Every structure is written in C-alpha cells, then in structure tokens.
Amino acid sequence: MKVMAQMGMVMNLDKCIGCHTCSVTCKQAWTNRAGTEYVWFNNVETRPGQGYPRRYEDQETWKGGWTLTNRGNLKLKAGGRVQKLLGIFASPVQPKLADYYEPWTYDYQTLIDAPLGDDFPVARPKSLITGENTKITWSANWDDNLGGSSEMGHLDPIVAKLNASVRRESEEKVRFELEKTFMFYLPRICEHCLNPSCMASCPSGAIYKREEDGIVLVDQDRCRGWRQCITGCPYKKIYFNHKSGKAEKCTFCYPRIEVGLPTVCSETCVGRLRYLGLFLYDADRVTAAAATPDEGDLYEAQLDLLLDPSDPEVIAAARRDGIPDDWMDAARRSPVYALAKTYRVALPLHPEYRTMPMVWYVPPLSPIVDVLSSQGHDAEDRGVLFGAIEALRIPVDYLAELFTAGRTDIITGVLQKLAAMRAYMRDVSLGRDGDPAIPAAVGMSEETLYEMYRLMAIAKYADRYVIPTAHVERAHELEEIGCSLDFDEGPGMYESGPFGEASGRPAPVAVETFNALKQRQTSDTAMTTTAGGELRGRVNLLNWDGNGAPDGLFPGGPPEPGTGATTTEGQR
Amino acid sequence: MSTFLWGVLPYLCVASLVGGTIWRYRYDKFGWTTRSSQLYESRLLRIGSPLFHFGILLVFFGHVGGLVIPESWTEAVGVSEGLYHFNALLFGGLAGVCTLVGILILVYRRRTTGPVFMATTKNDKLMYVFLVAAIVLGLWTTLVSVGAGSEAHNYRETVSPWFRSVFLFRPDVAAMAAAPIQFHIHAIVGMLLFALWPFTRLVHAFTAPLHYLFRPYIVYRSRDRQVSGSRQARPGWSGIGTTDRDRQR
C-alpha cells in the first residue's frame, strides 16, 4: 500500500442554477489572455446537450481515455506509443476550433470614433482569430438551457447511445416532448484523474501529477506542443494555447489551494454546490483498478481505492509515506470523502473512460422532482418520490450513462438516499418526529442521514472547504511580505516603475493578501494601530478596513494659522 | 575564398548551432515548441505535414549514409559505386520530391489560410527561405547527377571526405573545392540553415520525443519548492486579442 493524498472536488448538481459565475470568474483568473480566448477551464453544460467542445463524449470519434486490450491491459484509446509517435506530424484526432467555437470581440472603438451621423454606430463582432468581421454562430454555452429540447437534444452523444442501446428493457426512446423533457446543469473542470490519459499521451512527459496533492499540471517549459494530450483527455479539458503553442489546463487553482483557499470556481459559486477536500488513495492499486474488466464495476473499483483516514493501518502507512499529520486530520474531516465514500452519494463522471476522475458529482434529483411537481404530486413524499425514481426511467438511464457507466441500480440507490433525506427532513423541519423507517429504507441511520443533511443542505463554508495548506520550508514567508524592493525610495516603492504607475516588471502578488485583508477587516483595531504600522505613503480605499481614519485618508485642508485651534476643533 | 567557405564557415555554423541551442534551451524553454497551427487549419496540414516530415527524415538518413559512411566501407560489403549511386538517386530523389511537395503544400497553406499567415513571424519566413532553398538545391544536385548518367560526379570522393574531415578538425578544403558548383551552393545554404536552426522553430526537432517509447505512463513530480503564494509573472500572459486587429489596419 502506498498512500497518496489527492485534492478532490464534489459538486452537488441539485444546487446548480446554471449561472456560469464559476466559468466567468475562472476565465477572468486564468484564461483571459491571448491564445486562450476560446478556453474555458471551467464550463457549465446543460444536459442533455452536446457539451463543450461539441459532442466531446463521443469517444468513437475523439478517441479519448483508455480502453482494454484483449489480454485485459490498459491501452490508450488513441493507440499505443509507436502509433502515437507515427501520427505526431499531423495529429490524427484533434478537435478543430469550430468544435469549440471561434472567439470574438466587438469593435468597440467604432462607438467612440464614429463620426456624427443619423445612424447609431454599431460595434460589429470581430473574430479574435482572424481579426475579420465575423458572424457569431456558436460559443461555449450556446445551447445553454436548450438541453432536452427537440432542437438540440438528439445531438447529445449519450442520448444517441441510449436510443441505440439494447441494454434498456423498455422500448421507450428518449424523446423531447414537453411533458417528458428534463434538464440539469453540469459544471465541469479538469478531473485531476488518478490515471490520467492526457499524461500518458504526452510525448514530452510534460504533464505531471503532484505527489503532495495530486493536482495535474502541465510544465510549460517542457511542453512542446505536440497536442497528444488534447486527444488523450476524454473530457477535453486540456486546451491548446494557439499563441504560445503550449497545452494549458485547469490548475485546480493550486496557488490558492496551497495557502488553504478554495479554488476560484468554488469560492464564487453562488449555489455553494462545490465541496473541496482530501482523498487518500492507494497509488499501488490504481492501474489494476482502472483495468477492471466490466465497465459497470469501475465505480466500485474507484471507491475501493479511497482509503479510510481513520483506519489505524492507513494512518500508519500514511505516516510512513510522509503525509503530514495536519493533512491526515484534514482527510478525516474531508467533505468529499464523506460524500463519496461514507454516504456514497457522489459519483465520478464517466468512470468508463478508466481515468479514475477525482471530481465527483451528486446526481440531481431535480429532473424527477420537477416532473412530479408539474404533475401536481407531492414531491417531498417518500412514497411518491421512491415510486417516481423507479418509474421515470429515462432521467435515471441518462444519469447512469453519465456517472456509473450504465448501472441504473447505483443511480437509483443514490437518488433514493437524496429522496429519503428530503422526506425525512421535511418531518423534522415541520416539528414532527422524524420517521426512522425512511433512513432505514435506504440503509442509513437517522444520525447519518442528519449529518448528510447538515453537509449537503446547510453546507457551511468551513464544512464545504477543508483544505490543508502546503508545507514549505520557508513557512514564515507565507505571511505577506510584499516586494523586497518596496523600501522607501526603492525602485519598487508604490509598485510603480520609472515610466509611471504600473510600468516596468509586474511585482509578484501574494495570494495571502486576501487572508491578510480578511484578518484586518474582521479585527477590531484600526490598521494603523496594528503591528503592521503605518500605511505606505497613501491610502488605497480598496484596502481600507473601515476601522479608524488612517493618515492621508482625507486630503489636507488649507493651512490653518494656529495648529492648536484645529486640534481642539477636532476633539470637540 | 575556398578556405573561408570550407575551412572557416563550417566551424562558425557549428558554433552557432551548438552555442545557440544551449543558449536557447537555457533562456527560452517556454518558446521551445512546434507552434502548431493545426487548430486553425487541419485539412492541408494532414497531407502536407506528414509528407514533409517523413520525407525529410528519409533525406536526413540518406545524408548520414552518404556523408558519414566512407566509400571504402560500402565497397567492402560489395556495394558497387554504380549500385550505390542508383539507389541514392532513386530513394533520395523520391524522398526529396516528397519533402518538396510537402513543404510547398505547407507554405501554400501558410500563405493562404488567414489565421495561419497571421501567426507566421518574420523569423518563420526567413527560415522557410533557407529551408526551401536547401531542399530545392539538394534536388538540383540529384537532377544534375541523374542527367549526367554514369558520368555523374561522385560526391563520395569530394564532399563526404570534406564533411568527415571537418569533424576531425583537419578540414580537407581541396576535396570540397573540387566538387561541382551545385554541391557548393547546396552545402553553403545547408550550413547557413544549421546556423539559423537554434533561433527558429526548427528547434523542435532536437526534442523529438523518442523517450516517450520508454517512459512510464503516469508521471509524479513534487511540488516546486518555491515560496508558496507569490509567483513571478510568467510568459504567455499577454493581453487578449487586439493586436491582430491592429495588424490589419
């Protein structure tokens, strides 16, 4: 047993309102740059729908992920090592820009420069690729909220698979009539897999998994732009920066995670649906688990990899493998471990790709609840809900294709737990005694169900994000130090260069500014009187903590003849 | 003049190639990439790029065979001059034509596809001039040899000894000077191309990922040991897109 730690995420899909705040903040933080205009490390898809890039789940076309050889060994779906090298001169399976979308901007300058005239000036869309006028025909979420409609629904690879499948007993096909339609949102980031096929595809070996926290990163200095990772990733979550010629991907906001802050997408999530925490897993068994013969067993195999951080044997092995005690503590409090393994309500996205993804999803009950309430049923009644989960086959089949490689029994089990939680907690919140038969029906105790409710419905910030900070030898430097050139009259003073403010090389910005700011804002003393001492030269209102009036907050008034007079004035 | 061309220039070019590569590797790892344009256009690339690359690989091995292996060795294993020459011209010519057709497709694609042309730097254009020139001149030597039939110049008695002598630091200037003009021009352009090599996108050839065949699939690496939280600004963070439109105006 080799114990390794992995930062993981769970998203509770019932809570996603599809507001795209995570996508927008992520883009602002990471891909608001030349060459990555079309890149969304985080995107929110409406399902059923094509996703981004279009139909990325159709692995017969895109050749992402792993497959098994006849002898039962893992093999990249795009081919073996020799085959991949031979195809390197023109990567055979590569999404085109049109499969994502052609990014654009607007010619805002016209609005300002247009001569006076009768017509209102119009900012025309300009392609960010060619610079020419363009017609906007698609984008990363063009089919937003159109999921499940007859116009787009049939383009979903999963719908196509379901309709072609022989696995389903019922003859019923997925149709998109109004009364049968369903949809939900699926936010996606890089899965930071335990068995990443992007990494295995990289000819240069530039993609690596960090030993400490399992975050998968691209070494920008070693990437040579062969683009095999883009083929390799079945989730199409590695992108090609067409300006720098390098692959880029979601970083799990590692600079924030290292100092104990949640990722940008989690922090800004309006629905508070994301959970961050540690998994411990057995690195020695990953390949064997990924090579599980039956796709339907992959979810269980993946769950088996996760180690119980309270198990004395695991604790001893973790200590041997150099996992610090505070990380073990965080692993025991990990909300993602609780949701995935203890309560077993979080499921991996597409386990059949055999990459062992580490971003998990609580499948949504809402497609079923929506149908029930639209038909006038009581969608919080246990009997009605349980019956509906059995009866509404299509949403269940669809979710099973997404999260359990077609195993509807697992999906049904999870949905029943969510339904039980709903039904049980209604009684409690109405002041009645909870019905112990409800948790018992899904194999849980009342206490466990209540704990699950606390974690999923109350979802306090501190419970959602349990992030141990990285260990560095120079831990004292974690405190905000600013730039070493920022001494008085030094070149870095006021963080401006010789050609005015913001010129010259950018000064490194510490993420800890956020923590320091929070500390100042929540402390009772004015900033000027704390140990930090005087503010440097002038007041930045964005940093002002609202406590007291630091020097320079107000501009100096006209010189008074007697200084004593002003003092008494002020004191009165 | 001969002394400079065949006794000095080779060393200048090798110095530029080796020194430039080391410099580039140390100071511009981030810029060390193929700068693929497949995202912009892939239909022509699918044909042109493999044609060119496999062609040039064959051409490379042909050159190694012709320049490095002495004539006496091949004769020792019973390959006569005529047989060797016939093969060299046939396969070398075929590989050369593939390479030339491939690069012509690629250049055509680069010129006519808007986004690809916009992503083409001055550096690229200079490189293309030398690369295409070297290929064309190489094919010219082949053509001349084919035209001359059995009277063709045997470069393995002039160019090859000179090439080997350069690496023994005793350049055989006289041998090279005795070769016909087409070999002279081809060699000069070739040397200049190698001198230019480290400063162009051609560097990607030096990091051909052969180690992919042997490395483990999953790569674990420890976190960078630097101060957490604060980081230097990195390349690749230039602002979004208005430069393209500026260039249009």
TrEMBL record, chain A:
Domain of life: Bacteria
InterPro entries associated with the record: 4Fe4S_Fe-S-bd, Nitr_red_bet_C, Nitr_red_bet_C_sf, NO3_Rdtase_bsu
Biased composition (Low complexity): 562-572
BP term (GO), one: nitrate metabolic process
Cofactor requirements of the protein: [3Fe-4S] cluster; [4Fe-4S] cluster
Sequence segments annotated as region (Disordered): 546-572
UniProt GO molecular function: 4 iron, 4 sulfur cluster binding; electron transfer activity; metal ion binding; nitrate reductase activity
GO terms under cellular component: cell envelope; membrane; nitrate reductase complex
Domain 4Fe-4S ferredoxin-type, chain residue ranges per copy: 7-36, 181-212, 214-243
Any Pfam family hit: Nitr_red_bet_C
Compartments, as annotated in UniProt: Cell envelope
PANTHER family, A to Z: NITRATE REDUCTASE BETA SUBUNIT, RESPIRATORY NITRATE REDUCTASE 1 BETA CHAIN
Name of the protein in question: Respiratory nitrate reductase beta subunit
Automatic annotation (TrEMBL), chain B:
Binding site for heme b: H53, H63, H186, H204
Transmembrane segments: 6-23, 44-69, 89-108, 128-148, 173-197
SUPFAM superfamilies: Respiratory nitrate reductase 1 gamma chain
Cofactor: Mo-bis(molybdopterin guanine dinucleotide); heme b
GO biological process: anaerobic electron transport chain; nitrate assimilation
Signal sequence, renumbered to the chain: none
Keywords, alphabetical: Cell membrane, Electron transport, Heme, Iron, Membrane, Metal-binding, Nitrate assimilation, Oxidoreductase, Transmembrane, Transmembrane helix, Transport
Residue stretches making up the NarG-like domain: 3-223
Topology within the bilayer: Multi-pass membrane protein
Matching PANTHER family: NITRATE REDUCTASE PRIVATE CHAPERONE, REDOX ENZYME MATURATION PROTEIN REMP FAMILY (PTHR30598), RESPIRATORY NITRATE REDUCTASE 1 GAMMA CHAIN (PTHR30598:SF3)
Entry similarity comment: In the central section; belongs to the NarJ/NarW family. In the C-terminal section; belongs to the nitrate reductase gamma subunit family.
Name this protein carries in UniProt: Nitrate reductase-like protein NarX
